[in-house]
Design a protein that fits this description.
By secondary structure, the protein is mostly helical. The chain is built from seven helices and no strands. Keywords: Membrane, Transmembrane, Transmembrane helix.
Length: about 230
């Protein structure tokens, strides 16, 4: 209640909404735990194949021994969001704890590298360190008096460059993938056209051969008398 200290707590109105507050507070903490237990029990289950298939979205991109890493990411985001509500958006404690959390998760991810795909792994590492530098810039911006317009402009430009670089990397990968798919599809189309042309040429040759066989010139019957006359004069 930092916004208005005149509001009294534990009144009848607060007691009415207290169960809803507890429910909404338990859900962000309990849902990742529930997912963790379900993945642990059913990720290689043969009985509940449908459930195991549905849970793959939480661990299929991770290495086998890091099947739990997506839950770790959930708690990382939950901690970063909760620090704002617990310590305020501009508190020094919040900035210090945010730097600590971001640093710990960034170092842990860089050390373990839990994601399978090379590009996804590099992108996630890059994103985590971009978040770290964002927090550092935010700490500098919050704790110091940025009165000069030039200083404020430089900080804002750095924010834009850091965050847009992630988007540019993802877009570059997407464009490269589309180019690869286009080359594959175009080569397949050209190959199909060549196969169709060969098929038509084969059909044309076979048709000409059959036509020649059926309607072509036939050999004349053997004339014995003509043959004897030729032999006599020769």
């Amino acid at each position: 209640m930092k916004a208005d200290y005149s509001i009294q707590c534990f009144t009848a109105q607060h007691k009415t909404y207290w169960p809803f507050a507890v429910m909404f507070s338990v859900y962000p903490v309990g849902f990742p735990l529930m997912i963790l237990l379900l993945i642990y029990k059913n990720r290689q289950s043969q009985r509940n194949e449908e459930l195991s298939f549905g849970l793959k979205v939480f661990f299929e991109n991770c290495k086998d021994k890091f099947w739990f890493w997506e839950v770790t990411e959930m708690y990382r985001k939950l901690i970063l969001i909760s620090l704002i509500f617990l310590f305020g958006s501009e508190g020094v404690s919040r900035i210090g704890l945010t730097l600590l959390v971001v640093s710990v998760f960034g170092v842990a991810y860089t050390f373990f590298r839990p994601i399978k795909g090379r590009f996804e792994d590099l992108l996630q590492t890059f994103v985590l360190w971009v978040i770290f530098f964002d927090v550092c810039l935010g700490a500098m911006y919050s704790t110091s008096d940025v009165t000069e317009d030039n200083d404020s402009l430089i900080v804002n430009i750095l924010f834009v460059i850091l965050n847009s670089s992630v988007l540019l990397v993802a877009l570059g990968k997407g464009i490269a993938h589309l180019s690869f798919v286009y080359k594959k599809v175009s080569s397949c189309v050209i190959h199909c056209i060549k196969l169709i042309q060969r098929g038509f040429a084969y059909i044309k040759r076979k048709s000409a051969s059959c036509f020649q066989t059926v309607f072509g010139p036939r050999s004349e019957p053997f004339d014995l008398q003509r043959h004897l006359l030729i032999q006599e004069f020769t």
